[in-house]
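User: Some background: our group keeps a shared notebook of sequences we're curious about, and every so often someone picks one and asks for a predicted structure to add to the entry. Today it's my turn. The entry only has the sequence so far, pasted here. Could you supply the structure so I can complete it?
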Amino acid sequence: MMGKLLAVTTTAILLGAASAASAGDATKASFGTTPDGKDVTVITLTNGKGMTAKVISLGAALYALDVPDRNGKPGDIVLGYPDLKGTFEKPQYFGDTVGRYANRIAKGKFKLDGKEYTVPVNDGPNSLHGGKLGFDKVVWTVDKVESGANPSVTMTYVSPDGDQGYPGQLTATAKYSINDKNELTIEYTATTDKPTIVNITNHTYWNLAGEGSGSVEDQKLMIAGDAYLPTDATAIPTGEVRSVAGTYFDFRKAKPIGRDVRKASEQQLVYGRGFDHNWVISRKEAPAPREVARVTDPKSGRVMSLWSAQPGLQFYSGNFLDGTTSGKAGGIYREGDAFALEPQIFPDTPNQPDFGSARLEPGQTYKNVMTYKFTTDKGAK
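Assistant: Of course. Here's the predicted structure to add to the notebook entry:
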């Protein structure tokens, strides 16, 4: 009887040890300081299945993400600067949380309850990603770092009333978590003390073959949208919702990113120097997340499936990577070396009522949750 008890106890201890070993981990460390002396923290999340995410408190940004290729070898698949200087010297939103209003607001103006508000113009005649001092350029407070089955980090930024011209004190949170299925979830929430507008998303530049490995134009993209929003020459939507059928914007069946990106016969591609448009996934937020995009890399076999409930998806084909930025591994980033997929409300919605509403009231909670599911395609060609 004693032998059986000992065997059971030993088995339980071994199982407990195995469970602890397979559980995820979350740690934090210093990542340097900003030019004005603020400390920046890096949080590392690991799941024991080959996935490692590094998140920094500057811009609540995804700094690195290692996931396995078809041979089980992990590799970093997001672009970024080797240090903090690049964020301030040549801002490109690598991995950043962008807001208060992601994407563009025409001429930096919008009306709310009859009052006109002016926000900084920082993209030609328009305001982009919240203005000159958006959420990407501030240091967020690290509130919670949790290990376990779903290692995570939660950060907060309180944007005061009038920040960059926006009304209301906005309290925003960003939570990054991973699980043992090699899924990364980013959850944004926000509350306000007076009516305002909100559109927060993540601006990671992806290269499924590996950061610094060269062009993504052979990587195959599917976007689950039947329409897109044409723009004027300054990237502001014209108001038209145009069917993708019969156009270069039709990604309903996966095709290489680079197949049509340089078609000069399409004025929309000339305006954006490639794809930099919002796809209409639905006309309003869905009741639950659904797959909005899928990318497959024939070289590494990595497959990324993006799930979101947001009505819009901005697809950007890395058109303005101009060879003047050196990345984390020492390579030079050139045009077409990455892509971005940003679930969000439609661009310029505050000025275009037909697009819906970006309004947030006191007592309401804004939410944008996106999940990136990583697998491998053993037979990718």
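Suggested note for the entry: The chain has a mean pLDDT of 93. DSSP finds three helices and 29 strands in the chain.
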